[in-house]
């Protein structure tokens, strides 16, 4: 019992602490910087032009900072698209890092994109299977169907955890193999800001640790519900 409680506490910590830390890091470096020549959106456009990625656009979004490889679009939240802060510039560089991955046909990004497209459908199918399982047992009058349904449903939900796990190396590559070298080589931010820039880049990657843990919590929640 103690082991189960310890595991639950660990998963809860992994679910909520990274999100809190990410918000804290970004908030700490979101103050306006008059010494910066442009906003995060303008900086993203500048980097893309410098790299000859003129087929990639930049636009504002309400669903969080991300790069859409299908639309070839860097999307930034309002505070980062219009903001003139260290967080805005660094996160813009991170998302441009994904565009750089796409331009070089980076295999992990292709895999992540493929899995991400399937994630929503997989989650929906899994939930439907789990809800329908008891009714199918009653209709078929065979308890074996219940085990098949539960196994299939839990397997599908667990695949969402795999999707988030494949995301981690993609995010770290975008942060530290793409964005950070660009920021350093171009001297886009003062040297005194580089330690903070590294923290922001790390925070951007660790958001997916929380997402993976939340997916795992979802699996455990279903298991608990179906045990009773």
**Number of DSSP strand runs:** 3
Number of helices: 7
Main sheet characteristics? 3 strands, mixed
Return the string of H and E elements. Answer: HHEEEHHHHH
Keywords:
single chain; three-stranded mixed sheet; 75% helix; mainly alpha; 228 residues; 7 helices
Description:
This protein is mainly alpha-helical. It contains seven helices and three strands, in the order ααβββααααα. A three-stranded mixed sheet has the order 1-3-2. α4 packs across α6. The longest helix is centred in the last third of the chain and has 43 residues. The protein is elongated. It starts with a helix and ends with a helix. The model has no long low-confidence stretch (mean pLDDT 84).
Layout of strands and helices, then pairs:
Blueprint: H1 2-28, H2 40-50, E1 57-61, E2 66-68, E3 73-77, H3 78-81, H4 86-103, H5 107-140, H6 143-185, H7 194-227
Parallel strand pairs: 1-3
Antiparallel strand pairs: 2-3
């Amino acid at each position: 019992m103690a082991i189960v409680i310890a595991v639950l506490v660990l998963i809860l910590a992994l679910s909520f602490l990274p999100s809190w830390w990410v918000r804290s890091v970004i908030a700490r470096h979101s103050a306006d910087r008059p010494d910066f020549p442009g906003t995060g959106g303008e900086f993203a456009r500048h980097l893309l032009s410098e790299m000859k990625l003129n087929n990639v656009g930049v636009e504002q979004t309400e669903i969080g900072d991300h790069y859409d490889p299908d639309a070839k679009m860097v999307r930034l939240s309002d505070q980062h698209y219009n903001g003139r802060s260290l967080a805005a510039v660094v996160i813009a560089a991170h998302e441009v890092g994904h565009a750089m991955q796409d331009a070089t046909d980076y295999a992990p990004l292709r895999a992540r994109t493929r899995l991400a497209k399937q994630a929503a459908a997989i989650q929906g199918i899994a939930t439907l299977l789990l809800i329908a399982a008891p009714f199918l047992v009653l209709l078929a009058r065979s308890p074996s169907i219940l085990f098949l349904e539960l196994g299939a449903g839990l397997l599908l939900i667990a695949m969402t955890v795999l999707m988030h796990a494949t995301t981690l190396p993609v995010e770290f590559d975008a942060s530290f193999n793409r964005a950070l070298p660009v920021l350093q080589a171009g001297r886009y931010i003062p040297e005194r800001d580089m330690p903070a820039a590294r923290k922001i880049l790390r925070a951007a990657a660790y958001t997916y640790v929380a997402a993976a843990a939340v997916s795992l919590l979802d699996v455990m929640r279903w298991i608990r519900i179906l045990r009773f």
